Amino acid sequence: MDQLLPSTYYHIYNHANGDEDLFREPENYHYFLQQYHKHIDAIADTYCFCLMPNHFHLLARIKPKEAITAHLPGFKNLEGVEASNYLSKKFSNFFNGYTKAFNKKYERRGSLFLKNFKKKAIFESEYLASVILYIHLNPVKHAFVKNPADWKWSSYDTFHIDRLSVVEALFKTEENYFRAYEDKINSYEEYDQIESYFLQ
Questions:
Q1: Do 96 and 18 share a domain, yes or no?
Q2: CA distances from residue 128 to 159, 163, 171, 180 in whole angstroms, order as listed
Q3: Domain holding 51: CATH number?
């Protein structure tokens, strides 16, 4: 398994096994987010997310090495953390824990997610901007809603407020930011190209 790197943005995503759903009712979405923050907040800052019935997308930035090791008395430096695959294991433990709770609630067995969650490192601002749009537009692309604001299980409604500095750095103004969504919605051919690139 490829190691996650400190101070690095990642697009993290995964899909349910076969025709399964990851979320069957609102309680599942709430529990997923609750457990996500419980497991992941210590190692990463989450910028945006979108939870769909059978898959999810996250944009997270792994914290600097000093912030990670400060609360890990068993590791004197990040090299020890990396050698143990600690960062990736935190995500794996989260997914495994969610699966166990889900299986117990619905009396099912076996894996819920596809094996090994997917992650793509982001090093360029243009790519970062595209990932943000891509994540928030997922419910539109999959025809659940016509406007990303109508999908409850994403960070679309608050991203431009909570991450205003990111919006300004990547899009210059809020007006440009929201216009970028409109352009994508009006051009599904371009959106399909983005999707095939991110999920290849």
A1: yes
A2: 14, 13, 11, 13
A3: 3.30.70.1290
Burial class of residue 160 in the structure, from the number of CB atoms within 10 Å of its CB (0-12 exposed, 13-18 middle, 19+ buried)? middle
The answer for 110, left when phi > 0, alpha when psi is -120 to 50, beta otherwise, is left
In this prediction the pTM is: 0.87
Q: Total structural domains in the chain?
A: 2
Give pLDDT tens digits for 95-121: 999 999 999 999 999 999 998 899 999
The set of residues, in sequence order, having a beta carbon less than 8 Å from that of 156 and lying 6+ positions away, is: 48, 50, 136, 148, 149
> In this structure, are residues 10 and 82 in contact, taking their beta carbons and an 8 Å threshold?
no
End-to-end CA distance of the chain: 17
Strongest mean pLDDT among 73-77, 121-125, 183-187: 121-125
**Domain that residue 168 falls in:** 125-200
Q: Are 141 and 196 in contact (CB under 8 A)?
A: no
For residue range 135-175, what is the model confidence (pLDDT) as tens digits? 999 999 898 998 999 999 999 999 999 999 999 999 999 99
Tell me which of 80 and 99 has the higher pLDDT. Answer: 99
Q: Is the dihedral of CA 124, 199, 132, 41 positive or negative?
A: negative
Q: What is the CB neighbour count within 10 angstroms for residue 148? A: 22
**7-35 pLDDT, tens per residue?**
999 999 999 998 999 999 999 999 999 99
